[in-house]
Amino acid sequence: MLHLLRRLWLVLLLGLAPAHAQPADQPAITTPTKATPALWRATGPAGAIYLFGTIHLLPPALAWRTPAYEQALTTSNRLMLELDERNLNPAVLQPTILRLGLLPEDRSLRDELGDELYNQLSDAGAQVGVPEVTLRRMRPWLAAVSLSAIAATRMGLNPEAGVDRAILTQANALGLPVEGLETADEQFVHLSRLDGDAGRALVKQTVDDLRDARTLFDRLLVAWASGDPVLLERNWWTGQPKNRRSSTRNC
């Protein structure tokens, strides 16, 4: 699940997870009692920048703002986020995502994955309340992200409680200019390229992660909340597919 958190956050924000998934009992995330996430300051001739790693989905009860974070934000003159949520328009993006995320009528997800992996994915979907018929025409990337998104919500994770949303709200109140490093279109186009072997690898990793999704996210959340870069790096790589280890991104 960890390698999909960035994308499933966007799916949840846009309301793209399958709407008719049936309720199912899922254990809640074990929320740390205290969060002191790491903050880096880099300086140069042009001034200083602060680097603050975020988690897009969090349990609502977690308090993570520290004096160092507050000082960094209130003394900055610009905020750069991975994605500026203010530019998200589900009505505009949904047709694009469906175009990129659905297979032609003469193809099925079973054709793309093969019987064994498709059956594993279908079983994983049943565990989070997604009927098999919902998956049939999805491309591998959309099926993987959708199931991960639903599993995240069942564990009590919420994009409304995520760090990005909170920082953006606070920056708007301070009147800070905000820019996004990527657009939603760019993120979904990147995902749409995960076909063939890459798509099958993504689905296989997702099926494996969903078997122990709570433990994986608990581990990452505790590492992020600790502010320990060594612990965070160690737990970020846990569960990462090998072909994704060439770059690290926000979760």
Automatic annotation (TrEMBL):
Identify this protein by name: TraB/GumN family protein
**Keywords, comma-separated and alphabetical:** Signal
Under the heading InterPro entries, the entry gives:
TraB/PrgY/GumN_fam, YbaP-like
Question: Secretion signal: which residues?
Answer: 1-21
Q: Name one Pfam family in it.
A: TraB_PrgY_gumN
